[in-house]
Amino acid sequence: MGSSERWTCLVAALLLLVAGSAAAGHEGAIHFEVGAPEGCFDENVDGLGYGLSLDYAYDGGGALAVGIGADFLIYGHETVLMSLPLVEDFEYVTDNNVASLFLLARLHGGRGRIIPYLEGRFGGGYIWTETKLSDEDWYDDDEIARETNWDDFMAVWGAGGGLKILLHGRDPRDRGSRDVLLDMKVVYRHGGRASYLTEGAIDVDPGGRVRINPSTSETDLMQYELGVAIRF
After folding, report:
1. I need a labelling partner for 219 at 20 to 30 A (CA). Which of 45, 62, 108, 171 fits?
2. Phi-psi bin for 10: left (phi > 0), alpha (psi -120 to 50), beta?
3. According to the CATH classification, is domain 26-231 in 2.170.130.30?
4. What is the pTM of this model?
5. Residue of 199, 207, 227, 211 whose CA lies nearest to 129
6. Structural domain boundaries of the chain?
7. What is the per-residue pLDDT across 20-33, written as a single tens digit (0 to 9) for each?
8. String of b and e for 143-180 (b: at least 16 CB within 10 Å)?
9. Which residues contact 5 (CB under 8 A, 6 or more apart)?
């Protein structure tokens, strides 16, 4: 069985394992996210990525919630100082970014103050590199130009699990309650094959000539998310 078939089976299991009953509810969450490159992506990218994720989910009274989410990570950052004749010093600031938009299915494993859960995701991703040219003066940081140097799209899917802990409110499964929960999760996100830039992939010589050296591979990430969920 291939990796895509395994992920499909896992998401299907989430959809089938609907059990228990509770009041229907909405839930929105925001997380700080750390992304650790995996596989071939890890071979090309040095270090971790940092960013944010958002999601919204609704359950119809059972253990299964469905919804939508998005995340954004900066997986590389580089600043290059340049100086040209008759021109003040300036700098190139380059950010390597990856984002995704996905549908989610979440299977809750309890109805108390501590709630374990499983989560599956499927959607699309966008990976791009953007460079900003600005002067070096610390007191104004004037932006001279901004440009996307490289971008690509890919499919994304994955699965993981987490734990929610009630911080404020009543039982987070009660109808009409507005509760605040600490939300911790780990998700393995498989990203399809894409072309992208890494730190050092853009080389600017003193004469102003630019050379770009892209990498191509699958874009897998292990995502660690810590945040706050509000249930209403």
Report:
1. 108
2. alpha
3. no
4. 0.79
5. 199
6. 26-231
7. 334 558 899 999 99
8. eeeeeebbebebbbbbbbebbbebeebeebbeeeeebe
9. none
